[in-house]
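Morning. Coffee machine broken again, so started the prediction first thing and wrote up yesterday's gels while waiting. Chain of 96 residues, entered below exactly as on the submission form.
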Amino acid sequence: MKPFSKEEINSQLAIHLKSWSYNENAITREFKFRNFVEAFSFMTSIALEAEKMDHHPEWKNVYNVVQISLNTHSAKGITQLDFDLARKIDDLYKKP
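Came back before lunch.
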């Protein structure tokens, strides 16, 4: 899978993933929740989707905050797979 150029990444983010940003060869976003249980439940939901896609995020969780970073290591950059997973993550975040 071929990585996107910086211009293509910024365009994709501006159009489809406005809450995400591009930082040092990854797209990133921070999510906040009311408590740890909600944050961990969110991570569990992502883990199930990521496993189906065979594409796994780099993430960090501290209490009610989840920070996610996506890139395709095998392509050494950002690919369509990263944007697809980011959209799924956004959809999971929107669910009640």
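The radius of gyration is 13 Å. Going to sketch it on the whiteboard this afternoon.
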